[in-house]
Amino acid sequence: MEPFLRRRLAFLSFFWDKIWPAGGEPDPEADPTPAPAPRSPPAPRPQLFRALYDFRARRGGKPSVRRGDGLCALGEDEGGCTFARRLSGQPSAGLVPITCVAEASPEPLSDQPWYFSGVSRTQAQELLLSPPNEPGAFLVRPSESSLGGYSLSVRAQASICHYRVSMAADGSLYLQKGRLFPSLEELLTYYKANWKLIQNPLLRPCMPQNPVQQDAWERPHSEFALRRKLGEGYFGEVWEGLWLGSLPVAVKVIKSADMKLTDLAKEIQTLKGLKHERLIRLHAVCSAGEPVYIVTELMRKGNLQAYLGSPEGRALRLPPLLGFACQVAEGMSYLEERRIVHRDLAARNVLVDDGLACKVADFGLARLLKDDIYSPSSGSKIPVKWTAPEAANYRVFSQKSDVWSFGVLLYEVFTYGQCPYEGMTNHETLQQITRGYRLPRPATCPAEVYVLMLECWRGSPEERPTFAMLREKLHAIHGGFSRVLT
């Protein structure tokens, strides 16, 4: 009724504004348009995956996918496959090999240009009505009336419309009952294309009135509660913690006695500029005072070395092992492009999530260790069995010394976390390597992968392959074995 009267009797706009104030938040139970009957039972929240390599379907019922494609699981696993729908390109659904995909890590809301945390309803109206925003500008903000919920605010000419984003029992989100979405991003994508359902187009995210603070990484120690110690290494202790009492995170507590804290600020600046799906994501830092916290995303299955040695890890067959190798090579290739040397690449510094997604951690931190801690003379402190001879003997670290370490990591993967050069001391290991000894081929390791290991262990750093080459070769091997097994 309101739109009809406003359109037909526009000269009474002052009267209509009294009856229907502009910008009012709709009743959470009222839909902008008649909604279809609720589904019964509600659909389960879809699980998102990403393809690890190209897969070309050779028979009906299997969609072809390319590495990096997004997939949405639609059904239960059956016979080593999951029923999924491809989210990019031409719509396609069917059975996809489980070994072909890894669970996708959704981007944090803070990374989305349309999400404004800490913005009230009144502030949202001021932002959307201010230059350079125009009709069609929108933002999503935390709901003020529903804890944990959201509100969508949209500019319509000189007024603002607010819509409550509700959550179903299964965790799905909706504006209108019966139209469920697994995430805010998919909900917005749908209403951008079907904006007439809410009578307001969603054209572009709201532009902030003031420049966004570029460095919001620094947080006070009080925001983090350490819950459970996960481990300890050269760089300090690692704890599972909670950020602001709700977000699970991993907190690395830096041991100030062992670190060159004067260089830490510069290294943290480098970490802030790195973003790749195969690198652990930095959330925040606490560098004002001691101890220093480096806060990252929490990877539930822990480090790769420990996971491979667990009963669950030992049950894995060849394709997922090759998948681990491919993922680490992707992360290291990204660091290589940016001329960043890891210095301590090993399975213990690769973390694993529930979907068997791998992420490289602790890149660059070894450079901050005091010289008397990270040197051959300090005995067991330096990881000699993973370190290239030129780095162990002369402290010459480079991307090529990281390649040597990657070869040892491959050995760890295909021995299910076994320690390399078992039974040898660090001194004996260096002696044997200098004499030309190389680790033998593990029983589960394909011959093609062992050839890559030997290339990583060439005595001359210049003769070792790049991570870009290793990434491409491993993906080709992975794809070949997976096609044979499917």
TrEMBL record:
Domain (Protein kinase): give its ranges: 224-481
UniProt keywords (A-Z) are:
ATP-binding, Kinase, Nucleotide-binding, Phosphoprotein, SH2 domain, SH3 domain, Signal, Transferase, Tyrosine-protein kinase
Quote the PANTHER family the UniProt record gives. Answer: TYROSINE-PROTEIN KINASE
Pro residues: bias regions: 31-45
Q: Which PROSITE patterns match?
A: PROTEIN_KINASE_ATP, PROTEIN_KINASE_DOM, PROTEIN_KINASE_TYR, SH2, SH3
InterPro entries reported for this sequence: Kinase-like_dom_sf, Non-receptor_tyrosine_kinases, Prot_kinase_dom, Protein_kinase_ATP_BS, Ser-Thr/Tyr_kinase_cat_dom, SH2, SH2_dom_sf, SH3-like_dom_sf
UniProt GO MF annotations: ATP binding; non-membrane spanning protein tyrosine kinase activity
EC numbers for this chain: 2.7.10.2
Offer a single GO CC term for the protein: cytosol
According to its UniProt record, this protein's enzyme class is: transferase
- A Pfam family this protein belongs to? SH2
Q: Name one GO biological process term.
A: protein deubiquitination
Binding site residues for ATP: 252
Answer whether the UniProt record assigns the keyword Transcription to this protein.
no
Look up the domain of life of the source.
Eukaryota
User: Reaction catalysed by this chain?
Assistant: L-tyrosyl-[protein] + ATP = O-phospho-L-tyrosyl-[protein] + ADP + H(+)
- Extract the signal peptide range: 1-24
Report the sequence similarity comment from the record.
Belongs to the protein kinase superfamily. Tyr protein kinase family.
The gene coding this protein = SRMS
Task: Indicate what this protein is called per its UniProt record.
Answer: Tyrosine-protein kinase
